[in-house]
Amino acid sequence: MEQKAQPAVNTPERIRGLIEQDIAAGVLAPGVPLDENALAARFEVSRTPVREALLMLAARKLVTIVPRAGTFVYKPGPAELIALLEYLGELEGVAARLAAQRMSAAQREQLAALHQEAAALAQAGDQPQYEAANARLHELIIQGSGNAIVRDEIEDARRRLANFRRHVFDQPGRLMTSCAEHEPIVRAVCAGDGEGAARAMRDHIIGKGKAFADLVLANAP
Predict the structure, then answer these.
(1) CB 144 within 8 A of CB 189
(2) Where is the HTH gntR-type domain (predicted)?
(3) In the beta sheet, which residues pair with residue 72?
(4) 196 and which of 15, 42, 188, 192 could share a cystine (Cβ 3.0–4.6 Å)?
(5) Is residue 201 within 8 Å of residue 88, measured between CB atoms?
(6) What percent of the chain has pLDDT over 90?
């Protein structure tokens, strides 16, 4: 049976996605101006789809459009960074509590195994692989929450923080600290302790204050 071709991503959406990738990767630093003409030349399009893409990014709070001044990559101040991280911590805490209540036995086993894998990577000092395992562990908990709205809100907060959280694991000892913070989360989720899981996850996201403060200070104007 002949399959129908999938519709192509429209040009503004494609441009939005590519600019968003550059922001998350740090290619476009916070506060950098985005020139419509330069972007139009880069993507070989007129300025109209570029403007539409920038409006999409503004709706996601990844760029700031200042009338008569231009468009700039989102650059929160220290207080806003703190607020965003607190918000993300609360959201992931909700996800952890729900996961503790809703995860299947198979998912709990998978979570425990993934934690052990991450622990071995942290012990070996393998930062790239640890970061990947860390992302899978958090994603499994979010998936286990069974709440699509919480997932969407977490993704939104992460997008806004992506440019600032890229170097969290560069801090000396952070791999082992992160892994140690996972232990009470995984234990509580697997035991069905919703409140314990939420509390441990909030502490982990904020990093008990240290990684959190370091992040804010590193990005202070």
Answers:
(1) yes
(2) 9-76
(3) 33, 64
(4) 188
(5) no
(6) 71
